[in-house]
Amino acid sequence: MQWGAFEVDVAADGASFRLLHGGDEWATFGLHGMRPTGRFTDDPDEAEHGFTLDDATCAVRHSIGQAWTLRWALNAAEPLELDEAPLLRVRPGAASVVWAWAAGAEGVLVVGPRRRAAPVVGLRLTQGWLQPEGDGFSLAPDGLALAPGRRWVGALRAELYPSAQAVAASLPAWLAPLELTAGQPWEFRQPDQALVVQPPATTRAEGDAVQVLGEAGRAGVVLHSPRGLTALTLSFAPTLDTLLAAGASAVLRADVPLTPAAAFVLAEALGRSLISQPRAAES
User: Fold this and answer.
1) CA angle 179-182-186, nearest 5°?
2) CA distance 159 to 170
3) Which side of the chain, N or C, has fewer Cβ within a 10 Å radius?
4) CA pair distance 64, 254, nearest whole angstrom
């Protein structure tokens, strides 16, 4: 199927497909954990294949228009609880790179050329679930339960961007940087959505924002929204002074000859007045 200057080449059984640009293979995608059952549609701008997964059936459709859309729909004829969700695996071509941010109800996959800035293909999750799992991405939550006659639908919509920075600008507006200094608050401003924060991190209200605070280390945050659950990991890094003070203390406690690296740590800590017993360090 032709998508502008790109081609989406879907395998006969639908279990794999390639993104091609001219003679270059930009990425290979594979669907795992499902058994192909045949092709439903094979039009110039649409291809749909059937699969089975446990006691459910799944339809996977590629459609080409202004965007390339990949849609999957799990259907249950009997009560169903998935033991393992189907996986999407992505492998870059020799001349391309792949970057991914997948957090549950929000996610994006980016495929771009290795040696130039553009064009960049961004596949944004518009519906469903995308989460890292092993060497791929799960397309449904763990333990997904479906009642008879119900279905689970997910979709990725691919668009062209002038740069990776333009794809980053399309991420949710509430997604503030996730790397902070210990004690620096992470702020969230979405009054219609809720946060659940993993201890020992804490929250506090500050004006129209909810602030998440944590000591050095990592903290999990789960965002509850109408689209589902989005899991984020906040990283709180200690300050350089904190690291220098701890490193100098460890050097002074060690009864071994100083290495050049240890001497550098002591000198930096002394210069910043971070050692409580400077005479011991000087000796």
Assistant:
1) 55
2) 11
3) C
4) 65
| Region class of 87: left (phi > 0), else alpha (psi between -120 and 50), else beta | beta
Is the dihedral angle over the CA atoms 166, 169, 171, 176 positive or is it negative? positive
Residue 227: what are its φ and ψ, rounded to 5°?
-80, -20
Instruction: Please name the helix (run of DSSP H) or strand (run of DSSP E) that holds residue 88, with its range, or none.
Output: strand 87-92
pLDDT at 260: 82
| Residue 15 to residue 35: CA distance in whole angstroms | 8
Residue 274 contacts by C-beta under 8 Å, 6 or more apart in sequence? 241, 244, 245, 248
Q: What string of DSSP letters covers 8-58?
A: EEE-TTSSEEEEEETTEEEEEEEEES-EEEEEEEEETTEEEEEEEETTEEE
Mind listing the pLDDT tens digit for each residue in 172-200?
A: 888 888 898 888 899 988 877 888 998 88
Query: Under the phi-then-psi rule, with left for phi > 0, alpha for psi from -120 to 50, and beta for the rest, what region is 149?
Result: left
Q: Which amino acid is at 21?
A: H
Residues 141 and 104: beta-carbon distance below 8 Å: yes
Burial of 156 (0-12, 13-18, 19+ CB in 10 A): buried
Residue 278's pLDDT is 66
Token digits of residue 59? 């339809």
Exposure letters 268-277 (e unless 16+ CB within 10 A, then b): bbeeeebbee
Position 280 scores a pLDDT of 59
Mark the ranges of the chain whose per-residue pLDDT is less than 70.
255-256, 276-283
| C-alpha–C-alpha distance, residues 94 and 279, integer Å | 58
Q: Cβ-count burial of 21 within 10 angstroms (0-12 exposed, 13-18 middle, 19+ buried)?
A: buried
Phi, psi torsion values for 160, nearest 5 degrees: -90, 140
